[in-house]
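Researcher: Last one for today. Full complex below.
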Amino acid sequence: MQAKSISGNSVAEIRQRFEEARATGFRPTLAIIFLSVSLDIGQVCEVFDAEGIQIFGATTHGEFTESGISSGGAAILLLDLNPAYFTVLFSEFQGHNYRDTTQEIARKALEKFPHPAFLIAGSHLETDPEALLHGFQDMQGSEVNVYGGMAGDDFTFESQFVFTQGQSSERGIVALVLDEERLLIKGKATCGWKPMGTEKTVTRSEGNRVYTIENVSVLEMTRKYSGLENLTPDNPKISTEIATSFPLQLQREAGDPVMRPGLVVNWDDGSFLCSGSVPQGSKIRFSLPPDFDVVEKVIAGCKQMKEAEMPAADALVLFSCGGRLVSLGPMITEELEGVQQVWNVPMAGMFSNGELARATNGNLEMHNLTTCCVAIKEK
Amino acid sequence: MNPYLTRIQELIAQNNQLSTEEKDIMAKAIADADKQWTIVDFKLDRTEKVKKTTSILLEETIEELEQKRKAVEESKDALQKSLEELKAAQAQLIQSEKMASLGELTAGIAHEIQNPLNFVNNFSDLSRELLEEMKEELDMGNSEEAKSIAENVRQNLEKILHHGQRADAIVKGMLQHSRSAAGQKEEADINTLAEEYLRLAYHGYRAKDNAFNVKLETNFDPAIGKVNVIPQDIGRVLLNLYNNAFYAVTEKSKTAKANYVPKVTLRSRVMEEGNRKLVELSIRDNGNGIPEKIREKIFQPFFTTKPTGQGTGLGLSLSYDIVKSHGGEISVTSKESEGTEFVIQLPVTS
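Model: Here's the assembly. Have a good evening.
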């Protein structure tokens, strides 16, 4: 399988890069598209749809290829994968039927392939990503390979989209189904945020929304402990500051803690809409960004995966949390370059609102503030 | 770009002595320096923020931990107080149980004291009459007859003394039984102790219930000899087991067929287990038996099957503790509707 990555900041530029890639005789069948909400999804899709190329797409908080990071543009991974080895499925959520939706996707995938693996992207901040994972596990067991991310919107936290040819949705899921008998697909998420302070109890929450911790509004708690200044609705960067500087770390009875950053503040009741569900009664700790050596740790983790499971790859797809872009600042480039150089193959990735993968020795679950690296290789 | 680097970049650009190649190398070095400068700047800024947050969190955490330490201290004090109250309540309960069993003994004791008292009264009366006769014989000068009567009086007085001492022993035993302080171990004849308490329990039960009737059977092993025990404590254990046995047969009498004969059997024997010599006492009744589902609970404190007010639920629990404190074992076997057997094993030298 051959892969090429292209990027562009406008539809015209994307078209030009695509044509340049085709000029070498390269005939892709699949486009993995990560783009800014500022671009016209329909027009971008049309570029590839016109050539009969299937599309897996999501909007982002920023996108990147091995050539660098862009914001307000698109990062596209083109693959000339045999169409018999994959399919793209798309579905819109009806109410909160997240689990049912992915059960149905898994059912359809099983009709086509005996052992399907999935790359998925979901949209909307209220979506429960763990319910999406549970749907796949219901149909294929806990060992099913599912990797992905939740769509972003250039940190506006207003509208996120997933899309394929002819369809896009603010409350939906796009799934790239891969035949594991023909393709090897491995992924891993690495986090690095450190817990800080004492364990506290979530005294009121509903789904992804957290109202109170120890009977104090989560906003007040953040104001008290975080040291963040200018915690007001007038601060345009407030959401990213809260999410990236002072995320909640959900403690669990079994397994490692998972990150649940607050994404949107409700200034009336002081609640946070978090990335992922936070059950009422659960225990949380506040957390601080990882040490600067986390970049090396992520790269080392990928090297370990390469040695143990994936000695070669044809292409890389990365789902990196938008929070990392903010909290690692200029160092994020080092991280992305380092990961790409482990296999040194074409790569496209997005800065997301949540990552779906396994951490080391962990269950398949929804993470935040991680980098999830997925390597694909035709057998 | 950093203004200092920008200035250097400008100076290089203006320098005509440098070749294009050299300028390119310098431009790349400046770009790399700028990148590192940006990273260092970022790290410094983030470190400052993290430092600030960390210090607040640490301060709050220390404060919280201090509050928790105080709360733990207060809880500890409260627990200590509760423990002391509990110990006092337990001591009171044990004393109440002793007094309750003493109450059960009262009728039996009265019965036991009545016998020596009758002897004392009768022999005193008889002696008084004999002394009158002796006086008459002396007046008549029949000294031989008077001596014979004096001998009878002496024998009577010995009997009075014997029965007086018997009554004294019963009263002392009663006082020992109700004493709150722990007793001392002493050499005791287990067969006699078991029989005495069986009698006391029987009369006590009859005093409460005129209709109570039971066939008592005893089978003592004379080879037992004396055993080192706290007699009043072992007495309390036996009293408890006898009363339970009497209760069991009484309950069965209420529903059993007419030919049912309530029976309680007391058996003792000496046995050897490894290097240890043990004394075994068995109290068996032919009552209703203990249902299997509650058999495990009967030695638990406050567990009782008796109606409210009739049992404290402490009897078997205390019995268990007493037997254990003697280094012994207490066990139960029971068959529903056929009866129950409690077996106590005590080491001969504990």
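The helical segments of chain B are 3-14, 20-139, 143-178, 190-208, 231-255, 292-295, 315-325. Residues 20-139 of chain B form the longest helix (120 residues).
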